[in-house]
């Protein structure tokens, strides 16, 4: 099926039809970087050879330097050649070809250079074999870590499989979620020109960008529940307490996620009709899922993209090289923040160094491989979440250089996916969506020297300390889903994973990382405090049902006034028997149902959506007896997270509720959606226009703007 002109990418138009992809890849190479890689590979191979073989020696350092230069120049030339032929011969062919080429050059170099001494008749052949083998492997190892090599490998597979495919009559939809990206930040990045692919689509008019309001809670689980299922009303926060069972529910914990999805799924989610869910919290009712929290513990079919990624030397070598590089980069960037005394900032050590490498390298490349497999198969709708930016922004800050670099990396991913779509016989529309933004600020603990739980403990009259469910488990969700699925596969990797995780895996899946505290079953006047960014839910655990304001004042007369007047708290929301949910601030009250305000409106600085958002939050099942939202600074719009994160989301204030949607411009959008359920309805409508919903008898014609 031929693609209409408006669906052909700018990359293809600039490259010209029929021009080989490898030429485009070659132009992206940087000579100096290639020279550095070649020099490092040559130096390493020479050191190893001179150190291990007695058959070779040199008259000083000059001959070694001459060989380094020779092999470095050769590596530059070979990098260009290998990048081109990788599409045809694959990564194994690149390794073999590089080995043979290096053998010839090394043999010539050591026999011609008068400063290199060879001992024995067999020396030239033996030294050439050893040196060329080491040099080729090291050079290939560095080459495998480059974006050019990885894209070339993926394109080779796509080319081979695309030739055997027949065009599908309908256009599919690829939905990429960039986790945590706010509309103001994307707008700034596009204007600065730092996103050539995504920014190019917007600049040339193929795509339009619109800001949408997430509502509260501004979290990935809540937004994805709305986008994928239209069920965001079931998610009051990232974690919450349920009085009926005495459990704390954590949305990225597999067993909890499966139970929560069962509550909200109707069987007709966004991905119900042959779609696939990749690296998400929820399945969207897709029959096929990969790395999905709510389905991680269920048996899954073997994905070709999954197998190809782990069986390919390119994927393994690239993952190893770049994971180590990412960890080194994190150590350097964290030290730079400390040396510059950059504020606000948080500690960036421990497990986060490992998590950043896994999410920003291994899982990102695995996502690309899985998406590519589905694109080639012609899957009607694909939804994948990339968490790279969100993970770094939590610890570095939403607008810090290292966070912005992850967006540039994701932009390159979008460019690669567009190029893959361009060579397929069937068409895809690309939609970019974020689930929320992020707000920056020094944490509540940093500002006031105490946690919110400690403040609550001082204000209540109980015999036991409150239980704090303020974990650092968000970053572990994708890793646990990945390890759970890997451990369930019948392969060598699966067997090794099962043995390595012995005792860490349960029926609900692998659970690594810090655990959220669980209140004791026999709690006596126990208070439970859960936190999600700058949103906190407080429960009177032993008092059944939603506890009204009047009863809270009788049981704990200092609690509400103490919280509402604390300098780190913007307002609290609690149910009143007389007027329903009310927002109480330092100097005023806002009745959420009627809009009546007494004194100073505590919601005014949180934007026009604040009253409706907080009313909706107050009416959710399992919402806290008391909802606490932190302060927001008048000028900087910074908030005070109840978790130790410099970039946070979960409540309201700042950029965290300002999500973004980038869609093909030919689809009209009269009003910006409000809430993730509205985004769900919008995407369903677009799928109907493409004829990809089975419950629509007659596909609606696409309405094109004049």
Automatic annotation (TrEMBL):
Pfam families: Phosphodiest (PF01663)
InterPro entries in UniProt: Alkaline_phosphatase_core_sf, Phosphodiest/P_Trfase
Gene3D superfamilies listed in its UniProt record: Alkaline Phosphatase, subunit A
TM region(s), chain numbering: 34-52, 64-82, 88-111, 123-143
Key words of the record: Membrane, Transmembrane, Transmembrane helix
Taxonomic superkingdom: Bacteria
Protein name, per record: Nucleotide pyrophosphatase
Native source species: Kribbella sandramycini
Classification lineage: Bacteria, Bacillati, Actinomycetota, Actinomycetes, Propionibacteriales
């Amino acid at each position: 099926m031929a693609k209409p002109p408006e669906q052909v990418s700018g990359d293809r138009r600039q490259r010209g039809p029929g021009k080989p992809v490898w030429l485009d890849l070659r132009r992206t190479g940087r000579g100096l970087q290639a020279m550095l890689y070649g020099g490092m590979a040559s130096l390493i191979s020479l050191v190893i050879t001179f150190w291990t073989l007695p058959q070779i020696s040199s008259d000083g350092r000059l001959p070694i330097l001459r060989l380094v230069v020779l092999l470095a120049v050769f590596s530059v030339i070979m990098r260009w050649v290998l990048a081109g032929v990788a599409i045809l011969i694959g990564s194994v062919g690149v390794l073999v070809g590089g080995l043979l080429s290096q053998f010839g050059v090394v043999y010539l170099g050591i026999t011609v250079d008068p400063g290199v001494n060879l001992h024995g008749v067999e020396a030239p052949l033996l030294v050439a074999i050893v040196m060329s083998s080491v040099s080729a492997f090291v050079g290939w190892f560095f080459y495998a870590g480059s974006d050019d090599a990885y894209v070339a490998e993926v394109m080779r597979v796509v080319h081979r499989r695309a030739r055997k495919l027949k065009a599908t009559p309908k256009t599919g939809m690829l939905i990429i979620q960039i986790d945590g990206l706010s509309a103001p930040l994307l707008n700034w990045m596009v204007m600065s020109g730092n996103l050539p692919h995504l920014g190019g689509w917007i600049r040339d008019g193929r795509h339009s960008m619109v800001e949408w309001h997430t509502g509260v809670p501004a979290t990935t689980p809540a937004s994805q529940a709305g986008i994928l299922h239209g069920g965001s009303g079931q998610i009051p926060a990232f974690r919450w307490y349920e009085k009926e069972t005495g459990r704390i529910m954590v949305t990225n914990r597999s067993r909890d996620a499966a139970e929560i999805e069962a509550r909200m799924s109707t069987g007709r989610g966004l991905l119900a009709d042959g779609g696939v869910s990749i690296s998400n919290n929820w399945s969207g009712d897709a029959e096929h899922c990969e790395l999905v929290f709510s389905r991680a513990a269920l048996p899954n079919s073997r994905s070709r993209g999954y197998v190809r990624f782990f069986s390919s030397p390119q994927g393994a070598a690239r993952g190893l090289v770049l994971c180590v590089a990412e960890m080194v980069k994190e150590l350097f960037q964290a030290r730079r923040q400390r040396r510059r005394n950059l504020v606000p900032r948080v500690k960036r050590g421990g497990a986060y160094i490992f998590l950043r490498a896994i999410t920003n390298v291994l899982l990102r490349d695995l996502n690309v491989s899985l998406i590519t497999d589905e694109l080639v198969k012609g899957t009607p709708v694909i939804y994948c979440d990339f968490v790279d930016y969100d993970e770094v922004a939590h610890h570095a800050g939403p607008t810090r250089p290292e966070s912005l670099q992850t967006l540039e990396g994701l932009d390159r991913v979008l460019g690669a996916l567009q190029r893959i779509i361009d060579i397929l016989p069937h068409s895809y529309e690309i939609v970019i969506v974020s689930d929320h933004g992020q707000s920056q600020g020094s944490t509540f603990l940093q500002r006031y020297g105490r946690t919110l739980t400690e403040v609550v403990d001082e204000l209540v009259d109980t015999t036991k300390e409150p239980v704090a469910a303020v974990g650092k488990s968000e970053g572990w969700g994708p890793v646990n889903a990945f390890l759970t699925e890997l451990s369930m596969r019948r392969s060598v990797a699966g067997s090794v994973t099962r043995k390595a995780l012995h005792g860490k895996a349960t029926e609900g899946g692998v659970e690594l990382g810090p655990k959220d505290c669980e209140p004791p079953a026999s709690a006596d006047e126990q208070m439970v405090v859960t936190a999600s960014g700058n949103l906190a839910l407080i429960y009177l655990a032993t008092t059944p049902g939603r506890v009204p304001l009047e009863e809270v004042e009788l049981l704990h007369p200092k609690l509400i006034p103490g919280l509402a007047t604390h300098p780190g708290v913007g307002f609290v929301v609690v149910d009143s028997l007389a007027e329903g949910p009310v927002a109480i601030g330092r100097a005023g009250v806002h009745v959420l149902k009627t809009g009546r305000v007494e004194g100073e409106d505590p919601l005014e600085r949180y934007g026009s959506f604040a009253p409706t958002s907080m009313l909706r939050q107050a009416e959710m099942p399992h919402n806290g007896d008391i909802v606490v939202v932190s302060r927001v600074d008048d000028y900087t719009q910074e908030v005070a997270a109840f978790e130790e994160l410099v970039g946070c989301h979960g409540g309201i204030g700042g950029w965290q509720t300002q999500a973004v949607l980038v869609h093909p411009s030919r689809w009209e959008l009269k009003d910006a959606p409000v809430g993730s359920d509205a985004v769900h309805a919008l995407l369903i409508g677009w799928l109907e226009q493409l004829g990809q919903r089975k419950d629509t008898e007659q596909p609606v014609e696409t309405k094109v703007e004049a």
